[in-house]
Design a protein that fits this description.
The chain has seven helices and six strands; from the N terminus they run αααββαββααββα. With 223 residues, the protein is of the alpha/beta class. The protein folds into two domains: 10-80, Helicase, Ruva Protein, domain 3, CATH 1.10.8.1060; 81-223, Rossmann fold. α2 (31-46) packs across α3, α4 packs across α7 and α5 (137-144) packs across α7 (199-218).
């Protein structure tokens, strides 16, 4: 029986990231599984990318998150921290007030704030069933002035691994598009969409999210 040929990489630069992840997860996941997730992550991000320059790096980051989530699902040692997933969505047809690809903000803002305040005691993710092209610049500004770094944040597609690994799923305006799985704790934070809003309004949204985060942290006994 002839072996199937290896899948073709959509970008040859992905090979380096795949090699790094294979080394990191040696003995846990096969090279074939890792390569499949990296390629799938690249393809998913490419569907919504406004500027494709960094797709290779972002695909590795997304695949890393998915592999860590998969390890948690399979009960890997050291993966017992509470995991919180923020889910936010924008319809495919929607565009920004300036035209072009939709811009994201709520879930990335919430994830960055929680990660900052939890101090490594919570695994935080953000995603959406219809991720936008980029994070709203004014959202980045609103967080930076409070000492929260959003430099590495980017809108991520919702994947099965990250949803299944979450202990708490917090929805932020995605309605029926949000996932519903048994055994998860679900919260809905009806926070205003910051897209197109001035900095003063974004600051108010940030503070509203931060108040929700205070309540969430108080409900997590291990934090």
């Amino acid at each position: 029986m002839t072996a199937s040929p290896p899948p073709v990489l959509p970008d040859e630069r992905l090979a380096s990231g795949i090699a790094r992840l294979v080394l990191r997860h040696r003995g846990r996941f096969s090279a074939e599984t890792i390569q499949r997730l990296v390629i799938d992550s690249y393809d998913r991000l490419a569907e919504h990318a406004r500027v494709p320059t960094h797709l290779v790096v972002l695909a590795e980051h997304l695949a890393t998150e998915r592999l860590d989530a998969l390890a948690h699902i399979e009960g890997a040692p050291g993966s017992g921290l509470p995991r919180v997933l923020f889910v936010c969505s924008l319809p495919h047809a929607r565009t920004t007030s300036r035209g072009g690809t939709p811009i994201a903000g709520r879930s990335q803002m919430a994830a960055a704030l929680l990660a900052h305040r939890a101090g490594g005691h919570v695994v935080v993710s953000s995603a959406g069933p219809h991720p936008a092209g980029e994070v709203e610049p004014v959202v980045t500004q609103g967080l930076t002035e409070t000492g929260v770094d959003l430099t590495d944040a980017f809108p991520k597609p919702l994947t099965d691994e990250v949803v299944q690994a979450a202990d708490i799923v917090i929805t932020m305006g995605c309605g029926d598009a949000c996932p519903v799985l048994p055994g998860r704790r679900y919260l809905d934070w009806p926070v205003t969409d910051p897209e197109g809003a001035p900095l003063a309004v974004v600051r108010g949204i940030r503070d509203e999210i931060d108040a929700h985060i205070t309540e969430l942290l108080d409900s997590l006994p291990s934090v």
